[in-house]
Amino acid sequence: MVVTTGKPCNAADAPLLANPSGPGRFPLPMKEAAAVSIAPAQEVDLTLILGLIKELADYENLSNQVVATEAGLRHALFGPRPAAEALVARVDAECAGFALYFHNFSTFLGRHGLYLEDLFVRPAFRGLGVGKALLGHLARVALERHCGRFEWAVLDWNTPARNFYESLGAEANPAWVNYRITGEALERLARGRA
Ligand SMILES: CC(C)(COP(=O)(O)OP(=O)(O)OC[C@H]1O[C@@H](n2cnc3c(N)ncnc32)[C@H](O)[C@@H]1OP(=O)(O)O)[C@@H](O)C(=O)NCCC(=O)NCCS
Q1: What does the pLDDT read at residue 12?
Q2: Nearest atom within ligand 1 for CA of residue 135
Q3: What 8-state DSSP symbol labels residue 10?
Q4: Is 0.85 surpassed by the pTM of this model?
Q5: Residue range 49-62: average pLDDT?
């Protein structure tokens, strides 16, 4: 059973199918049907969320890049001008995963969009429909908030996640290449020394 709780996704409050694949259809080695609940993160979830961010970074072999702190996340998620929002997924009251997202903007569409920064389901809870429930919740948020797009990036080697996204109807966009400037290069550019 998938139950989505908390605003702004009241439309999703109705329980959905227990088996996310539908009756008799289990493309992954399916575990027992689980009670999945999705709720907006609360301040008390911050330690949990930082732990999940570190688990995701470990999965992506990027642990050395994680400098986030609980205080920083508190300010970003629950401060006076929140920069991002998060959802926590639970299975039978146990923390199963999370999603962290924020709004971006498309000038071409002239509308804001929804950008998924992190999606992570703990290994023991994979194949139960948790990832799909988190993305489904976010799809409803995107529609309720009149977003023009719902998008995210994925590491090119992350074939399981890419297959998962494509199984939901998402499409890769290889025409675009991400750029990032940080550290000394950022300082040099800012000071006119690039
Ligand atoms: C990718 C991830 C979020 C998927 O979550 P999950 O809870 O295991 O996936 P679900 O059980 O919700 O699967 C939903 C659907 O996707 C399909 N799916 C899931 N993983 C899949 C895979 N590796 N290949 C193909 N399809 C897959 C399922 O079969 C299911 O289809 P159905 O609805 O037709 O039955 C999870 O595996 C994860 O956290 N991976 C590690 C972190 C990661 O890669 N995060 C994304 C970073 S961009």
Answers
A1: 35
A2: 12
A3: G
A4: yes
A5: 98
